[in-house]
Design brief:
This protein is an all-alpha fold. Helix content is about 70%, strand content about 0%. Residues about 1-25 have low confidence and may be disordered.
Length: about 260
């Protein structure tokens, strides 16, 4: 299975019932603080360090199932970014177990487990059911967007559906990972004007994006998937002119 572009990690949402006592307020603050630290580390590629903080958040024993499930899913996604599939699957299942069978959170996390086991069709079925139950869930739109980008199985590629879900993911999350994925979606749809707009914003916060995009383009060449290479190379150069030598090497290596 090809590693997906990147999966936008869930944000933490605590419900008001946690604030019913001083202890609840203190716990809520600690849980939020640790989860936020984990998010920041994950978004800068420090997945192993992020897991420490996510586990710290769990150590405060959040009472709300949404909170427990979200943190477990964050840990699962961080392990996935490190290519530690067994650990990722275990935490997806822990997240799913916070819900009853058939609830959107159960479907979302079991779908992610399906994706890590090359069961794309089973995952898609669960995610579409989950989307019907919870139409504004970031994690559901993120996973659907990646499926329709063909990142798990190119037979499922559908550019317009990918754009619909990746745009929604970005609108809900407003983070650099979802913006990167949205930009790559625009590239695949030959809309390089919008791709440049979003990648320029990402570059300001994360200059390494230029190399990430070049690596992604090289992956498309290797897999013989449709992408305008000349426009892609030009976009990378506009982000970072110092990538000219690296682009020349890719051209030489693949004869493009």
């Amino acid at each position: 299975m090809k590693q997906p572009i990147s999966k936008a990690i869930c944000g933490l949402f605590l419900l008001g019932v946690l604030l019913s006592s001083c202890e609840g307020i203190m716990n809520s603050a600690k849980i939020n603080q640790e989860n936020d630290k984990g998010l920041q580390l994950y978004l800068t590629g420090e997945s192993e360090e992020s897991i420490v903080h996510f586990k710290n958040a769990l150590s405060y024993n959040p009472r709300d199932k949404e909170t427990r499930a979200t943190i477990n899913r964050n840990i699962a996604l961080a392990f996935n970014a490190m290519l530690e599939t067994d650990s990722s699957l275990a935490y997806h299942k822990k997240a799913a177990e916070c819900y009853n069978r058939g609830e959107y959170g159960y479907l979302l996390n079991m779908a992610d487990a399906n994706l890590q086991q090359d069961q794309t069709e089973a995952a898609l079925t669960k995610l579409l059911k989950a989307n019907a139950l919870q139409p504004d869930d970031l994690g559901i739109h993120n996973s659907l967007g990646l499926i329709y980008l063909g990142e798990y199985d190119y037979d499922f590629f559908d550019g317009e559906k990918a754009l619909k879900h990746n745009l929604k993911t970005y609108e809900l999350g407003k983070d650099i990972i979802s913006e990167q994925v949205l930009a790559q979606t625009y590239m695949l749809l030959d809309d390089f004007e919008n791709a440049k707009k979003h990648l320029t914003t990402v570059y300001i916060q994360y200059p390494e994006i230029a190399q990430d995009i070049l690596d992604w383009v090289e992956g498309k060449i290797m897999l013989e998937e449709k992408l305008d290479l000349e426009k892609s190379f030009q976009l990378i150069l506009e982000l970072d002119p110092e990538k000219e030598e690296a682009i020349s090497q890719v051209r030489e290596d693949w004869g493009v």
